[in-house]
Amino acid sequence: MLVKVFGAAVQGIDATVVTIEVNSSRGCKFYLVGLPDSAVKESHERIISALQVNGYKFPTSQIVVNMAPADIRKEGSSYDLPLAIGILAAVKSISDEKLHKYIIIGELSLDGSLQGIKGALPIAIKAREEGYEGIILPKQNAREAAVVNNLNVFGVENIKEVIEFLNGERTLEQTIVNTREEFYAQQNEFDVDFSDVKGQENVKRALEVAAAGGHNLLMIGAPGSGKSMMAKRLPSILPPLSLGESLETTKIHSVAGKLGKDTSLITKRPFRSPHHTISQVAMVGGGSYPQPGEISLSHNGILFLDELPEFNRSVLEVLRQPLEDRQISVSRARYSINFPAGFMMIASMNPCPCGYYNHPTKPCVCNPGIVQKYLSRISGPLLDRIDIQIEIVPVPFEKISDTRVGESSESIRQRVINARQIQERRYANYKGIYCNAQITPKLLSQFAQPDEKGLILLKNAMTRLNLSARAYDRILKVSRTIADLEGSEEIKSSHLAEAIGYRNLDRESWAG
C-alpha cells in the first residue's frame, strides 16, 4: 500500500515541504531514497527500537521510502517521526485518513520519546502557507510553532500519542500562544541600565546618536574605561522590536537552534558578542549543514566586537559587504543561501598594545610606530564603514564616587524612539529603509543637504582630515540623525560639527 506523509526541510531561514512516500510490497528489504544524509539513514535503527518499546512491530514486508523533492538534500534526525508514521500507515497498522492534514516532524529516541528539533517556526509558517490544518511536533518546540496564527499546533512527548491520535483513540491538546501578549510582556525588561554608568557623558551621547540612526560605532580607550559596560547597555536604549522584526529574528534563532526551551518569541533585540578567535564561517554562516553565522544572529540587533584589532584580519574583512548590503550570500559547491544581516556593529579597542596611549595619568610604554601599526590591523575600508569613532577617557575619581544617579535608559530610549519615528515617516515611501544609516547617496542629497555655512565647515574638515567620499557620506548621515534628535528639519552647522567630532581616527595626528 502506498501512503504519503508530509515533513519539512529547512534551507537558510525558510522551510520546504517534503513529501515522504512509503510503499509496502512483497519482499524483505528496506530502501530509503530521495537524497537522505547519514542521520536520515540511521533513522531506520531508531524507528525499529521506538516501535518495539511501544508495542508495535516493524514490518517484515519490503518497504520503499521516497523523500520528494529528491533534488533537495534531507539532513538531520527530524524525519524520524514522519518516517515511522508512514511505515506504519503503509502496512495499515494505523489509519491514513488524517495524514494529508498535518506536517509531522520530530526526532525519535530509542524508547519512542521525542527530542526537540531546529527550525520549528519556519516549518510552522510554511505549513500555514501551504494550507495544512496543523503541525505535529515535539512538545519542546510547541510554543515556538504556536506563534503562527490559524494553525493547529500539537506538541507530543511520545510516538504512541501520535499513533493513538491518528487512530482516533486520543485527543491531543492544542498549544495556544497569545502572540501579541507574549510579544509585549517582556519588551521593556532589562537587567542593565545607563543610570549605572558614572560620567562618560560624551560617550553616552555618541551611543544615543548611534541608536537613533542605526549607526555603527567604535569606542577606543584605555582598559577599564567602561567600553564593554556601555556597549552591553546599548540594547536598553534601542527602539523595541516590531512584531514583524521579532518573528524574523526568532526564525533565524530557531534555525540555528539558539532558542531556549519553551521559548516562543524573541522580544528584545539580540546582542551577540563573539570571541576574537572566531572563524570566518562562524561569523558569516555556512558549513556542511548551512547555519546562520553571528552576523545573522545579530540581525535586528547588535554585533559587539570587543578588542577589535585582535580579530583575524580576514574575519573582519568579511564584514564589509554585509555592512553595506544588510544580507550575506553564502555560496558553496552544493548550495547558495541568503541570510539576513541587518545589524549594528559596535566595536571597542585599546589605542595601543599596552593600552595607555593618550591616557591622562599612565604613560604609554610602546615603541615609536607601534601605535600606528596596531591601528593598521583594522583596514581603512572597514573603518570607513564605521560612522562614529569615539575616544573614551578613564573616569576620574570624583565621578566614580559621585552617588547621584545618572540619566536612565528609559528617558534616553524615548528620545531615540522619537527620532526613529521621524525617520520612519520620512522614508515611508522607500522600501527597506527605516533609519538614517540605511539611506542611499541619492536620498542623502535629498534629505541630508547642509546649508552654505555647513558646506564650508564640511569642506574644511574634508581637506584637513583627508577624508574619503564614504566618510563624507557617513558624516552627513550622522548629522541627519543629530538633527532628528533635536527635531530639526534642517541640518545646521552645529550638527555637522558634532558629526565631524565623531571621526576621531581620521585625524592624522591621532596616532602621533
- Roughly how many Å apart are the termini? 81 Å
Mean pLDDT: 89
> What structural class do helix, strand and pairing data support?
alpha/beta
Strand content: 15-25%
Alpha-carbon Rg, integer: 28 Å
Q: Give the spatial strand order of the biggest sheet.
A: 11-14-17-10-18
The multimeric state of the shown protein is: single chain
Q: Number of helical segments?
A: 22
Percent in helix? 25-40%
Number of strands: 18
**Global geometry:** elongated
Poorly predicted runs are none
Q: Major β-sheet, in short?
A: 5 strands, parallel
Layout of strands and helices, then pairs:
Layout: E1 2-11, E2 14-25, E3 30-33, H1 38-41, H2 43-53, E4 62-68, H3 80-90, E5 102-104, E6 107-108, E7 114-115, H4 120-129, E8 134-138, H5 142-145, E9 152-156, H6 159-166, H7 179-185, H8 201-213, E10 217-221, H9 227-233, H10 243-255, E11 271-272, H11 280-284, E12 285-286, E13 291-292, H12 294-297, E14 302-305, H13 313-317, H14 320-325, E15 327-331, E16 336-340, E17 344-349, H15 370-375, H16 380-384, E18 388-392, H17 397-400, H18 409-426, H19 441-447, H20 452-465, H21 469-485, H22 493-501
Parallel strand pairs: 3-4, 5-8, 8-9, 10-17, 10-18, 11-14, 14-17
Antiparallel strand pairs: 1-2, 2-4, 6-7, 12-13, 15-16
Helix pairs in contact: 2-3, 8-18, 8-21, 20-22, 21-22
Task: Describe the structure using short key phrases.
elongated, 37% helix, four-stranded mixed sheet, 18 strands
Summarize the structure.
The protein is of the alpha/beta class and 512 residues long. It has helices at residues 38-41, 43-53, 80-90, 120-129, 142-145, 159-166, 179-185, 201-213, 227-233, 243-255, 280-284, 294-297, 313-317, 320-325, 370-375, 380-384, 397-400, 409-426, 441-447, 452-465, 469-485, 493-501, and strands at residues 2-11, 14-25, 30-33, 62-68, 102-104, 107-108, 114-115, 134-138, 152-156, 217-221, 271-272, 285-286, 291-292, 302-305, 327-331, 336-340, 344-349, 388-392.
